[in-house]
Amino acid sequence: MIIVMKPGTAKDQVDHVVDRVTELGLQPHTIIGTERTVVALVGDERLVSRDLLESFPGVEKVVPILAPYKMASVEIHREPTTVAVDGFEFGGKRIGLIAGPCTVESRNMVIELAHEVKEAGAVALRGGAFKPRTSPYSFQGLAEEGLQYLAEAREATGLAVVTEVMASEQVDLVSRYADVLQIGARNMQNYDLLRAAGRQAKPVLLKRGLAATVDEWLLAAEYILKQGNPNVMLCERGVRTFEQHTRFTLSLSVVPQLKSLTHLPVLVDPSHGTGRRNLVEPMSRAAIACGADGLLIEVHDNPESAMLDGQQCITSQQFARLVESCRRVAEAVDREL
Ligand code: PEP
Ligand code: MN
User: Fold this and answer.
1) Is the pTM of this model over 0.90?
2) Which of 117, 260, 328, 333 is the most buried (most CB within 10 A)?
């Protein structure tokens, strides 16, 4: 971290900064230039608040050198991390497709869909048993019964199960059934939940918060990593903007950007990201073209009668066609699907 003092700052203001950062455990090196003085700090700059230092008298700006997150950063861990889910490696050359309904509606529907998406090329089945709903009057998910159906679908097809956990108290239960714990957009900053997910052994799919910056998202991942769980995957699912033509704005530029900041696998959810069935396939192709390691896609056999998110679900036939067209894009960017 470099602290740039304002031109002509009095010596006692520089001394004050030097004393305070020393108390905070960093080693300051003062460089007196012809125009202005800068204080370079050696040590773990994450221990000090940049905003606080910028409020000190005489300080013009503070320039961080290190990312605020450590374990999620490529500064510490240069090689890409691969996350093994039932023998499939997310973050490797092959792109992993996770597909299934928004929510588990019944035993038959989830088992049937599991067979269909597997046949089309999915490596994992998605489906929420605990659903975060805007309205408390809306269907909240089948809870443990839904988890049991997902486990049956895994038995029947061999697909890994990805399902959402909404509270730290649910982590034990959900991790007994799931192969990957999904932490949803609305819970990206539920720090107790992040810590609890970090203390158990199953991989975690961490969705981006509706209004989260990349730094906030990577710091959320850091909470999980810091507890000892190295298997974290990030999933871009669109952010809230002024735009109304899609449900959210799918921020695909974040994919290559994340690849330069973190070693964690990056997935994209074009279903929630657009909220429109006709945009799922084109945005899936775009996600692969810009470097996504996997896709999370909502599939339903009769989207019009889906209990949740029917407007953005595609059918299994459409999913099978999507896989074929994504395969061609994957080959073009030297990936496999
Ligand atoms: C979901 O994947 O079903 C979901 C609720 O997603 P998000 O948390 O991104 O809204
Ligand atoms: Mn959904």
Assistant:
1) yes
2) 117
